[in-house]
Every structure is written in structure tokens, then in C-alpha cells.
Amino acid sequence: MNENNQKIELPEWLNTIAVFDTETTGLNLREDRIVTASIQRMNFNGEVLSGGKDWIINPGIPIPEIASQVHGYYDKDVADAPTSDKAVPEILDAINLCFAEGIPVLAYNAAYDFTILHYEAKRYGLHPVEFGNVIDPLVIDKTIDKYRKGKRTLGAAAERYNVSLANAHTARDDAIAAGHVGLGMLRFFRAQDQPGVPFPSSAQDLHDLQVKWADAIEASYAKWRQTDVPDYKPIFGWPVKEFS
After folding, report:
1. How far is it, in rounded angstroms, from Cα 170 to Cα 147?
2. What is the DSSP letter of 58?
3. Looking at residue 172, what DSSP letter applies?
4. How far, CA to CA in Å, does 78 sit from each of 3, 66, 209?
5. Where are the domains of the chain?
6. DSSP per position, 181-216
């Protein structure tokens, strides 16, 4: 990545962001549970601010071996941890506080984390997140750097934007790395002159753009899948996918 992009100034609406990540029992957005989560605050220079919080949670169901191998938490590690019915309200409150203060919340592949959290909230009869503005580096990356070859994982993005990711798949480190990636990506975005893809004028503008971009990405993916699975249906929704 061009080092000159590091000198690009970001607008005032990015002075403070929150960064959010979860590690879970699996990939089923409706049924799987949160095992660890982290929300931190960061300024636009990438400095982590006070006011963050981390959670280790007993999800109330066995953690599959394959998930434990990814994030490192086994049933024995969470046996005495707060249960989901106690931790999920705290996570919701922390995110809602950021939105209430006008702070955008950044999550890499936001539709994963926020959909998991949405169904966790519903599971315990809680009101889901009251959304403000969300920043999703994955959606932005697939739009502003559409034709780049290779993976679109957080690790791949971190390498592209010269971000250290020493402890991948730990919620706090992934959240902070995603924040650095997102800020680098937004600097790259602002430095470009792409016809039809203007740099947003506000956090709300960026949020609204991502809603459209995420739908376009899902439609393109569905079209590709339908070459092998003709009845494949796209699953629209960002930053939350609601299933019928």
C-alpha cells in the first residue's frame, strides 16, 4: 500500500470510532452463540482510547472443537464465565452507548457480528441494537478495490494495509486490527478519484452507501452461486440479516 496514503487526513466525523468483534461457537448466524467479544474506542490516528470492554462468555451450549481450534476457547475455559443472558445485555448497552454518542461502530464483516448479536438479543427477549452508523471494511474493500485478487479476510486486508495482526481470532486484537485496517482503507478511498464512488461526506452517508454496496455484493455472489445451485437465493441485509 502506498505510504503516501498514510498522510491523507480523515474528516472530523472519523475523529473517534468504536471497533467491535466477536468469536463464536460457529457460523450459523441464527443459532450460534458468542463466546468472546470486544468493543474498543479509537481515534483516527489509530490510538486506542479508554472506555473499552472485553467479554468471555459461557454460551450455554458446547463449543464445537472446530470453533475452539480457531479462537482458543474450550468448554473448560468458559465454565465459570458469565452466561449469555448476563453478558449479551452488557454488549448491547456498550454498542448502543456508542451510537447514542454519535460514534460510528466499525466491524469487519459487520453482518456476521451484528446478526449473531441480533439473534442473541432475541433469544433472551432483549431489544436488538438501536443502530447508528456502522463501518464495514469488508464491504468497502469489495467496492473500492473490487478487482484485487486474493482473499478478503481480515488477515489479508491487514497485510495489504500494513497492519499488525499478531493474535488473530482473539476478539480484542481482531477488533483493533480491523480498526487500523478500516482507517487505512478510508485513507486509500479518500486518495482515489473513482468515478461514481465519491468519498462520503458523513458517517451517515457512508452507512447508507454500504447498505447499497452490500446488496450489490450479495446479488453478485448469488448470481455466481446460481451457476452451480440454480435455486440459490440471495440473503440481503446489512448490517443485520434477518431470516424468515
Report:
1. 29
2. B
3. H
4. 42, 16, 39
5. 3-225
6. HHHHHHHHHHH---TT-PPPSSHHHHHHHHHHHHHH
Strands 105-106 and 48-56 come out as unpaired
**Structure-block grid coordinates of residue 123:** 433469544
Query: What is the Cα–Cα distance from 181 to 107, expressed in whole angstroms?
Result: 10
Residue 115 phi/psi, 5° resolution?
A: -75, -45
**pLDDT, one tens digit for every residue, the chain (244 residues):** 555 566 789 999 999 999 999 999 999 999 999 999 999 999 999 999 998 999 999 999 999 999 999 999 999 999 999 999 999 999 999 999 999 999 999 999 999 999 999 999 999 999 999 999 999 999 999 999 988 899 999 999 999 999 988 777 799 999 999 999 999 999 999 998 677 788 999 999 999 999 999 999 999 999 999 999 999 999 999 999 988 7
Answer left, alpha or beta for residue 196, where phi above 0 means left and psi between -120 and 50 means alpha: left
By CB atoms closer than 10 A (0-12, 13-18, 19+), residue 105 is: buried
How far, in Å, CA of 78 to CA of 104, rounded?
30
| Neighbour tally for 205: CB within 10 Å | 14
Residue 134 C-alpha cell reads as: 456502522
Alpha helices in 38-170 (DSSP H): 65-71, 75-78, 84-100, 110-123, 137-144, 154-160
Nearest to 28 by CA among 85, 69, 57, 66: 66
* pTM exceeding 0.85: yes
Query: Would you state the CATH architecture of domain 3-225?
Result: 2-Layer Sandwich (3.30)
CA distance 237 to 214: 8
